[in-house]
Design a protein that fits this description.
- The chain has one domain.
- Helices cover about 85% and strands about 0% of the residues.
- It is built from three helices and no strands.
- It starts with a helix and ends with a helix.
- The model has no long low-confidence stretch (mean pLDDT about 60).
């Protein structure tokens, strides 16, 4: 659902942005964040699972 993901765009953009900063300054750019945001659902799910374990 593209529309479903669109609604969650704002909160999801924050997480990949933080990940980019943690990974390195070279990743901190609009394109990197945009690409990461499309994968953020998978990234967030993985992080939540790891933290719970």
């Amino acid at each position: 659902d593209v529309e479903g993901e669109d609604v969650r765009t704002s909160p999801e953009l924050i997480v990949p942005g933080v990940i980019s900063l943690s990974a390195g300054p070279e990743l901190h750019c609009s394109e990197a964040i945009a690409v990461s945001s499309s994968k953020s659902t998978c990234i967030v799910s993985t992080i939540l699972l790891v933290h719970r374990l």
